Amino acid sequence: MRGIKFRKVRMLFFSIFSFSCFFVLLLNLMVVQLNSPENARKLNLNPGSLQRKLSQHQKFVVEDLDNSEEFRKHYQNAKIIERKPQGMKEENVPHKSNKVFYNPVQYITEKQKHNIEMDYKISQLKKLVKKKRQDFIYDYEPDINKAYIEDEDEDDEDDYDYPNSKEMNNHNKELILNNFNETKLNFLKPKLKFHEVPLVKPVKLVTKSVLSITNKTHVIRNVVEDGIYWSNEVEQLIPKGFDDDQLANWTKNIRQQPIKSLKLPTWNKCGRAKNRYVILGDGTSLCGRYRHPHNKLVLGEVLSFYLSKLLKMDNVPGVVLSKLDSSTLQWSSQNLDEAGWEEGKFVALIQWIPDMETRKSYVHMPKQILEALESNSLVNAVSLADDHLSPPVLSDLVQWGTMIIFDYLTANYDRVGSMQDGAYREKNPSILKENIRNLRVSLQKRKLWLIDNESGLLDAYDLLYKGGENGKQFITFHQQMLRTMCIFQRSVVQALQSLHKTIEPHKTLEDFARQQEPFVDQIPKDDSFDIFKIMFSKRLNDVFEWILYCQNR
Question: Which of 23, 111, 372, 422 has the most Cβ atoms closer than 10 angstroms to its Cβ?
Answer without folding.
Answer: 372
